[in-house]
Amino acid sequence: MLYPGHGDIEPFRQLAERLAVPLKDSSEAGFDPHEPFFLSWRDGCLKLLDKELLKKGGLAVEIEPRNGEQRSWPAPKDGALAQALGRKTKTVVDATTGWGQDSLHIFRMGYELLCMERSPVMAELLADGFNRLAGLDWMQNLNLQPPRLLIGNAIDLLATVETPPDCIYLDPMFPPKRKKSALAKKAMMVLRDLLGDDQDKDQLFAAALAAAGKRVVVKSPDYAEPLGGKPNESFQGKLLRYDVYFKN
Ligand SMILES: C[S@@+](CC[C@H](N)C(=O)[O-])C[C@H]1O[C@@H](n2cnc3c(N)ncnc32)[C@H](O)[C@@H]1O
Q1: CA distance readout (Å), 10 to 17, 23, 38
Q2: From the alpha carbon of 100, which atom of ligand 1 is closest?
């Protein structure tokens, strides 16, 4: 955890304590810029920094719509993601929230959304992003609450969800096709460096199929084998696929 050396140190102390990580002061003589990762507040956002990002500014949960997404709420339910979630779907659990980009897309399309994330670091970044989201004018004018976030392993958490959600959405980390793909976004590369591949994808898929009301959607790179065997439906996105498994 990196304290910039000015302002209130207390939130930095509390976050370092919650995550059981050391608190470093950038003005300290002992500050080591070669540590693989830091968290710090910059420009009003909690940011994840690595050596390269230390100068450039860091990565935060981006709460603005991505290019091509509508800014209205609820945005139209169109595109491959909405098709995969299903026309009749109302409630969605995103069991692998990560940087929250798919979750926020799902939220902006007006689905009722519950998020899960097992990395405590990603969960802190998400909580900060969802807090910023709650403060936006359009959220307040429409009296909307940000999605709820459960921190823990979705394999366990999904079994505790009382009302089965219509759809459970999975986007676990698959091994890359090549060691360093020039196409992988910096945010996803950092996530892979921080967390590694998700080795328990099969158990997660089984837990999702057991807990879903109607369907499970798996986002996967287009080169990867379908996670749950032959899907009932598949929707093609750019370099990726949404595989859909119906609940019998
Ligand atoms: C590829 S990223 C997801 C990216 C996300 N869809 C987005 O739009 O930013 C995968 C994330 O899922 C989380 N994850 C993987 N398996 C999980 C599990 N069993 N329970 C909870 N979180 C999990 C990882 O910690 C990681 O943050």
Answers
A1: 11, 11, 17
A2: 9
Ligand 1 contact, 157 CB (< 6 A): no
DSSP 8-state class, residue 5: S
100 lines ligand 1 (CB under 6 A): yes
Q: Which of 63, 116, 117 to mutate to test the pocket of ligand 1 (most atoms within 8 A of CB)?
A: 117
Q: Structure pTM?
A: 0.96
Q: Name the residue ranges covered by the structural domains of the chain.
A: 2-56, 80-246
Q: Which atom of ligand 1 is nearest to the CA of 99?
A: 9
**Domain 80-246 CATH class label:** alpha beta
Spatial distance between the Cα atoms of 116 and 211, rounded to a whole number of angstroms: 14
The rounded Å distance from CA 164 to ligand 1 centre is 20
Shortest-distance atom of ligand 1 to CA 201: 16
Atom number, ligand 1, closest to the C-alpha of residue 169: 6
Alpha helix segments (H runs only) across 57-100: 80-85
> How buried is residue 176: exposed, middle or buried, by Cβ count under 10 Å (0-12/13-18/19+)?
middle
Q: Which pLDDT tens digits describe the chain residue by residue (248 residues)?
A: 999 888 999 999 999 999 999 999 887 666 677 788 999 999 999 999 988 877 788 999 999 988 777 778 999 999 999 999 999 999 999 999 999 999 999 999 999 999 999 999 999 999 999 999 999 999 999 999 999 999 999 999 999 999 999 999 999 999 888 755 555 688 988 999 899 999 999 999 999 999 999 999 999 999 999 999 999 999 999 889 999 999 97
